[in-house]
Amino acid sequence: MPSSLDDNEIEDLDPSTSSTLDDNGGDAKAKQPSTAASSPATGEDDELLNVVRDVVTESRSDQAASPAEGEDDGQSTDDDKPKEQDDEDFSDVPFHKHPRFQQLLRKSKAYEQDAKRYNNVQTFLDTAGLNAEEAADGLSIMGLMKTDPVEAWKQLKPTIQKLLVAAGEVLPEDLQRMVQEGKMDQVAALEVSRARAGVNASQVRQSFAEQRQQRQQRTTAVQALGGAATDWESRRRKNDPNFDAKFVPLQKEILFLQQSEGLPNTPEGVKEQLDKAYKAVNEQFKPANPNPLPKPKPVIKPVMGGQVAGNQRPAGDVSTLDIVRANRRAS
What we know:
The chain is an all-alpha fold. Among the domains are: about 5-60, no CATH class; about 220-285, no CATH class. Helix content is about 65%, strand content about 0%.
């Protein structure tokens, strides 16, 4: 047995294992008969050549039947098509990346920012003691100062005149009369007017601070009363499964107590009034039976008389002896 392949066998093996075999698949078939004829190998070498040829032939047949990986065979499949995003479900994205969730998140942040701005403006108005109409007039005049100064001065002039008097820059009537009568010169009268304005401003600030404190106390008291009522309702809802059925009668009872006894002004008074109304409602409340007893079934009366199926009573007057004889004949 030869120990190695000769040159002719190498020439036959080389094109069979070449990388260009896929492009020249037809040449391999043409070379097979000539290779078999020209190869002097026998035994194991001949068997090795046959195995190599079979493998190459099978590989070529598989590649011809299915296109090579990465090549376009002209037919598109579902995997090759780009995955379209579902605008309705978005089931292919995580929840926190869902477009609608992101949209709601952006809206929530915008609403939060708007609410913060509104609270800042409202807090300033409450601190300064301004109402909505006064704030709107001030903003309107400031806008006119940039676009129409003449109209802005017409609207602002009465306010300026009041401000000059309140600040002491314009003499009041009594000081003007004293200056006209020569009892006081203009400079002294102006100093007295400014001193009066300072005292009045101090009194106004003190009064305003007291009023603001009273408003805050009233707001805090109202919040405390509302919190007491909310806590009472939450506790009752948790402990009473029939609270929803009692809610409307309870509201009527609370309204009656408020009209007859007045509104409570402390959290303890709120709870006492609610307990009183709740007790009155419980005395008249009749809960529906969730598991009513089943209605008794009608009693089935036994059938009296008649005859058993298959046995026919003979017509006419029949004696017992006739019945026995008839049964013997039947048996």
